[in-house]
Amino acid sequence: MTLFDGVYPFYPQQRKAAGFNINTIIVIVVFLTLACSFLLIIPGIRGRARLYWTFRVLLSLFVGVVIVVVQFTGDWETGWVQANTFYKSFSSAVVNADIGLHIGLEGVNITLKGNPVNQINETINYNEYFSWSFDANYDRSYSEGLQKGLPSPILYVAEKFTSQSPCAVHRQYRISGHYASAMLWVAFCTWIISNILFSMPALVYGGYMLLVTGAFAIFSLLSFSTVRNSPMCQIQIGTSTLHVAYGASFWLTLVIGLLCFVAGITVVALHHLNLDLLKTFFDLREDKAEEYQEMAEVFVNYHCVNKGLAPLQPSKTNSA
Fold this sequence. Notes:
alpha+beta, five-stranded antiparallel beta sheet, two-stranded antiparallel sheet, 16% strand
């Protein structure tokens, strides 16, 4: 078979490297819209309450967007290596490339980028995703990759996570990722409940729900970290070894969990130790409540109404 523009003739188009996960972009856009909407109304809040409202809303939105976004990212575990490796099966062509491994909750993403990108009359820039979620078939995706003629380094790394691989990590990653995702969705629900309680306001119960949110975020980390119970097979590419470590999503989830713990403990502690300070932070000062009460009394003061009608009674008697 001959080549056409560096691609086998029965595959007329080259594989393109993926950019961003569309689900991640949608979630970020939604939360940015909420943040911008709040910034439009913030000038209407007077005094120091403006600063308190800005801090509370932006912090809450940050926690919410992280809890949702990390479920679609692919960097809970990451690793990369630069090596000289065979490019395709049944070919003696050797390329110098960066091989990246990005593991998420629902699958694994394998990247291959040449150094330089253009080698052996081809553009070497691949980004292949293999899903192991319960509604996907990882082994079938791997078989399709074989049929498409993906580069050997990508197939070699992807083979380590198949259900038939001697590494035996497929089932562990699949179950751990599933339960970690479930814990994060529960954390998202408790985050919504905490915001509702803060707006009612039921401050101490909102603090309790923040503690529950942090707890479920930590539980998701514990669930995912159980994959370390199964020893990872050595991924040898050429003369180099690809090592995997916890990635940005894992550490960001840990930060969010600890942040929820700190915020929840602070709210509960202030409720019992300094309730006035807590009410000031949530713009629930007593003087404002008294102002509202005095304004309400103006409309229900029947004594003033009766006093205003008193001069009309003598005039009615004189006329008689």
